[in-house]
Amino acid sequence: MKITDLSTFLVQGTPGRNWLLVKTTTSNGIIGYGEATIESREKTTETAILELKRYLIGKDPTEIEKHWQAMYRGTFWRGGPILCSAISGVEQSLWDILAKSLGCPVYKLFGGPCRDRVRVYTHVSGITPEELAENSKKSVAKGYHALKLLTDGANSYTISSIPSNEEPMKMRPLKETVARVAAVRDAVGEDIDIMLDAHGRLDPATAVALASELERYNLLFFEEPISPDNISALCKVAEKTKIPIAAGERVYTKFGFSELINSKGVDVIQPDPCHAGGISECRKIASIAECKQIGVAPHNPNSPFATFVCLHLDATIPNFIIQEMIPDDIPPRGNVLGSSLELDDGYLRLPRGPGFGVQLNEKFLEERPYLPQDLPIVYYEDGSIADW
């Protein structure tokens, strides 16, 4: 069996986003899929994927570790979000091919599952604390036992419809963040887990002050309180709060995560299998974290296909905590795959089919051409640009 083609689907996803999916074709007709979605840089990543085609054509798709090393270490320029995302999408497609050729789920190739089901959380949004609280109760009614909200109140671009650079998305004062968390806790009670994501927008002193105010609300974790660029500052924040700190969605490969994990600045890491290097690289990252008794909560704001990828990763790592997911009832998510996932009392069951257990609806994807668009620039109240 040899790789005969490598192609991509670059398509409109949910409002404000595009999805970048990988298709690898083999000489015996087995097709493998992967995802390398990276918001606002999709065309650049697509080019990086197609450049890997020169190396991959004619190769045995089952020699996955060898190919990973060649794609990453075999070039002078390595690392970063673009190249690592390209490698991630291709690597996923190779595991899909191998598992399909053997007639088993991907997680069987890593020694089988550690668990029968995967705990998930979803995002909640709302302009006011009252609206946020009401939406939180609706999510709990749908079966979610864990919810995440943002410091600025925007999620899935629901603040003032779809923000753009012409309609600036502004940060909310931190006192409003405390009020919003309080409203959600009051609405859902103590048995529902709440997480808060700052997207790295706070400075260390502000992050510590906010965490101090939030400790009474028993958060599962405080995500990216400051920019991921400064690990020593992240350690200072972690030292001064009882809330577990989560980070890592913008960290790549085991090399980047090793530094983060050994810094003692995080309690939960959040590798994204579409960016950090793929399935096997995320398992290596999880193993490093396991040695430090650090949990794993993979990052996943991507297409429905990426959720299936994450489930296979989650199934095989002992220190897994919880999985981020976007519900498939948000159009056009429900049409991307030949099947969908059903929430069962806060959990998703593991896929049982060969490969990732799902097929892309290629006809539907071909009908949703790429629409160039950028993530909105976020501003502070004084008009200066905020960090993501």
Q: What is the element string, with H for helices and E for strands?
A: EEEHHHEHEEHEHEHEHEHEHEEEHE
Give Rg in angstroms: 20 Å
Structural class: alpha/beta
If helices are DSSP runs of H or I spanning 4 or more residues, what is the number of helices?
11
Shape: globular
CATH superfamily of the largest domain: Enolase-like C-terminal domain
Instruction: Give the helix proportion (percent range).
Output: 25-40%
CATH topology term of the largest domain? TIM Barrel
**Contiguous uncertain segments of 5+ residues:** 153-166
- Major sheet summary line: 10 strands, mixed
Please write the CATH class name of the largest domain: Alpha Beta
What's the total count of β strands?
A: 15
Terminal Cα span: 43 Å
Mean pLDDT: 92
CATH architecture identity of the largest domain? Alpha-Beta Barrel
The percent range for strand residues is 15-25%
